[in-house]
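Thread: "does anyone have the structure for this chain?"

Original post by V.I.:
We have the sequence but no experimental structure in hand. Need at least a predicted one for the grant figures.
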Amino acid sequence: MNTTATTSNMESSYTVIASGENERKPFDGISIVLLGRGGRPFKKDQIQKLSSLELNEIISVESNGADVEHLSRSFPELKCIIIPSEKTTGEKINIAVREASGTHVLVMWDDMDLQIIGRPGRLFSQAAGKKNLCSIPVLMNAQKESIPIRLAPVFSGKKLEVVPLGSVKNETPTLYPFDYCGIYNRKKFLLTDGFDIEIESPYWQKMDFGFRAFLWGEAIQCYTGIKIAYQNEIPNDDATISNSYKRFFLKNLALVFKGDSCHLSVLSIIRFHLMSGMSLFNSISDYRKTRAWVKENRFRFRMDPYSLTELWELQ
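Reply from O.Q.:
Generated one for you, tokens below.
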């Protein structure tokens, strides 16, 4: 049994517990990351079921160290990462993906049931062959009815709406990973900086990830080869306008693409100040911080946010 405490400059301290050699060799294939929501009985049953699929690596994200050493001894392919519970889901995924040994990482929750029909090795091999940043499996409710995972951005003037589309076909674009569930290309995920840990709202954190992916020329697509069913109620997204939205707005909707780079519109500070209700001093302060981030990454952008809708219109 190995226990390793690791600290990131950007993220929180966390502890890794794994049996055998803690430094596992990289491999071509899928690591599964299991997030906690259903409680200990759900997670233990899930790990046991996933272990029967003869996976190279299962990563369980934990909020405390209870029973993790026992679990690790029981399942040699299991790695447990203990992360403080107050951290955002996106931050937990960032850490888990960085710790994963596979070229691709399937993120799911412990109250989800992975539906495997046929040979799992073949299905996972096909999924790991995808070149896009993130592939979203078909998601179903407890009655095995498909739920909308294909999400499209729609602009009415400057107002943004996200519209669910009924038809789900393989490799069609979707704006963000519903409930964070998806098969992430590890290398591309890390190169695009993962989820923004300063955005606390799950909805706006996922929206920021999705917009940045497409604006930087990456793709998030539906993948019909794998199906996952919820065992509990499906969580609702809270799209309330909050501080999280303000950061999302400045990083994504306030951008102007010109030539081969992006910059923050000067007029956006006025729009942001009027929209946010914050003092002008705070608005300018946030604007300056985001402008520095945009300047640093200006040549990574491939389009402005209002061009995104064309990707769905072509389908």
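V.I.: this helps a lot. The CA atoms of residues 171 and 277 lie 40 Å apart.
O.Q.: and Confidence is low (pLDDT under 50) at residues 5-9.
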